[in-house]
Design brief:
There is one protein chain. The chain is of the alpha+beta class and about 150 residues long. It has one domain: Aldehyde Dehydrogenase, Chain A, domain 2 (3-Layer(aba) Sandwich), CATH 3.40.309. Helix content is about 25%, strand content about 20%. It has three helices and five strands. The protein has a five-stranded mixed beta sheet, with helices on both faces. Helix 1 packs across helix 2. It is globular, with a radius of gyration of 17 Å.
Length: about 150
């Protein structure tokens, strides 16, 4: 009989580890897109990154890059991240942000109550009931590692 041990993190919570020798531009572009594209709802969305050593210096740049993503209706040109699937999902995400703050995380980019990026002449009232949450970046220092959580 064999004993097998597993450290599994199910539920589509994909993790990444960023080492100090990583290419900064590649890390910034890849993490901003992988975490916030498709409102973070695709099965391969990266929701957690662990930064080792001075790789933590990349974190502010990732928050800056994520802040440039345009939130809006998915069918409109130029939208980088659309609405989440339901009001319940929006409330769940917002409660996760609040929970992160309660546990001591620093919110570097808060996606609650985002401003929608709409083309000139587009009637904003059509989207007032949408389930929008913008890119969110939080950071929690854990011993010698930085845990970086995206929403």
């Amino acid at each position: 009989m064999y004993s097998t041990h597993s450290n599994s993190i199910p539920g589509a919570k994909n993790h990444g580890v960023v080492l100090p020798d990583a290419n900064p531009a590649t890390v910034v572009n890849a993490l901003a897109g992988a975490s916030c594209g498709a409102a973070g709802q695709r099965c391969m969305a990266l929701s957690v990154a662990v930064f080792v050593g001075n790789a933590r210096d990349f974190i502010p740049k990732i928050a800056e890059a994520a802040a440039t993503l345009k939130v809006g209706p998915g069918h409109l040109p130029g939208t980088d991240t659309g609405p989440v699937i339901s009001q319940a999902k929006k409330e769940h995400i917002e409660s996760m942000i609040e929970g992160a703050v309660a546990q001591g995380a620093e919110i570097l980019l808060d996606g609650r109550n985002p401003t929608l990026a709409l083309p000139a002449g587009e009637d904003a009232s059509k989207y007032k009931d949408g389930y929008y949450v913008g890119p969110t970046v939080s950071c929690l220092l854990m011993n010698k590692f930085i845990l970086f959580i995206f929403m």
